[in-house]
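thread: overnight batch results

M.L. [08:02]
morning all. the overnight job finished for the chain we discussed friday. pasting input first so we're all looking at the same thing
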Amino acid sequence: MPVTQHICRRCLLEELGETALVQSLEELKAALPEDEKTDSGEYERRLAICRECDALNAGTCVKCGCYVEFRALKERMHCPHEMKKW
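M.L. [08:03]
and the structure it wrote out:
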């Protein structure tokens, strides 16, 4: 019997096990200058909101196509949703 693989819509990349993609994202996050990053508390708050959003699809935002884990890290970014959730 074939195994059915399910994609987690409301998961972040780190939770999906996409190791090469996660590694690339971590490198991008590390390269971002500290003065452009939001603080860790705000970052986690933003990710918590994204995890509950219907626009999250396997680590990306269907509203803009970004990787939410990178967008949420940038201080001057905002949620692309019509309601600007953060």
